[in-house]
Write a structure and sequence with these properties.
Number of domains: 1
GO molecular function: oxidoreductase activity
EC number: 1.1.1.-
Bound molecules: nicotinamide-adenine-dinucleotide
Keywords: Oxidoreductase
CATH superfamily: NAD(P)-binding Rossmann-like Domain
Largest sheet: 7 strands, parallel
InterPro entries: NAD(P)-bd_dom_sf, SDR_fam
CATH architecture: 3-Layer(aba) Sandwich
Number of helices: 7
CATH class: Alpha Beta
Structural class: alpha/beta
Distance between the termini: 54 Å
Shape: globular
Protein name: SDR family NAD(P)-dependent oxidoreductase
Strand order of the largest sheet: 3-2-1-4-5-6-7
Length: about 270
């Protein structure tokens, strides 16, 4: 197989659907062997079968450190190496702050932060063995601002940025790069039924999984060989517009609404 990632092995968590499935498809198309790791057995298995050669599904709950060790060992046995990890699996909980239960808060942190920590810890020794690798953590534009009703999710995504930089510093000497990709509003099963707001988005549309996958592909490949500890925002210019919300007056001269779209006078 030719392709930029030919001969390399990539693990994609949450790869059964949404952004993770888009990433798995893109890495596979670039020549990589792809291990789709997810709790969603039916969808993950279906995607691996559809991709065919150089793809397999493994059941993995990213919160389980023991399961992580088994997945990495299995990949090493089957393919001899692990070069890329995309820490993409994530969950959200929607609730007003006062009603955000400790249980829901912890669950979001367990998947979105501890899941990434376990993944990095599990793949680092395998990557060291082959002289390096690339780890890509999926954050969110919610790692640069806040949204109401998502306290646990926002907290977890800000943590992704800290974890990314701390791990990049420690693993750089082993040739292991650690970066974060931060999607904006993206059409996936997670956002099914969401009321997307693109009025302030520079490119005037929401993202598709393939849009996010393009950035992941860049960070997985050699074109980004000198990039580590970085935050790559992939949002069509959502944050660029959102940063101005508070200071843009609406038509009545009042401050703009930070949570809605801003109506600029013609
Ligand atoms: N869709 C968006 O608009 C958007 C925006 C910003 C960031 N993100 C982030 O992108 C990532 C993917 O989001 P998505 O929209 O594709 O979500 P999704 O819900 O469509 O897919 C998430 C996948 O993760 C898997 N998963 C959940 N918990 C898991 C666990 N404990 N172990 C293993 N797998 C698990 C699910 O089974 C699912 O296949 C998440 O980290 C999310 O926070 C999404």
């Amino acid at each position: 197989m030719s392709g930029e990632l030919a001969g390399r092995t990539a693990i994609v968590t949450g790869g059964a659907q949404g952004i993770g499935a888009g990433v798995a498809r893109a890495l596979h198309a670039a020549g990589a062997t792809v291990v789709i790791a997810d709790v969603h057995v039916a969808e993950g298995g279906k995607l691996a079968t559809a991709l065919g050669e150089r793809a397999r599904f493994v059941e993995l709950d990213v919160r389980d450190a023991g399961a992580w060790s088994r997945v990495v060992a299995q990949a090493q046995r089957a393919y001899g190496r692990v070069d890329v990890l995309v820490n993409n699996a994530g969950v959200a909980a929607i609730a007003p702050f006062a009603e955000h239960s400790e249980e829901a808060f912890r669950r979001v942190l367990d998947v979105n932060v501890m899941g990434l920590f376990h993944g990095i810890a599990a793949v680092a020794p395998a990557m060291r063995q082959v002289g390096g690798g690339s780890i890509i953590n999926v954050g969110s534009i919610g790692a640069f601002r806040a949204y109401p009703l998502m306290t646990g999710y926002i907290t977890s995504k800000w943590a992704v940025r800290g974890l990314t930089r701390a791990a990049a510093l420690e693993l750089g000497a082993d040739g292991i790069r650690v970066n974060a990709v931060h999607p904006g509003q993206t059409e996936t099963p997670l956002t099914d039924g969401a009321d997307f707001d693109t009025a302030h988005v520079a490119l005037k549309r929401v993202g598709q999984p393939a849009d996010i996958a393009g950035a992941v592909l860049f960070l997985a490949g050699d074109g980004s060989r000198f990039v580590t500890g970085a935050d790559l925002v992939v949002d069509g210019g959502d944050l660029a517009g959102a940063a101005n919300w508070a200071s843009v007056p609406d038509q009545n001269g009042e401050e703009g609404d930070r949570h809605g779209s801003v109506q600029l006078a013609a």
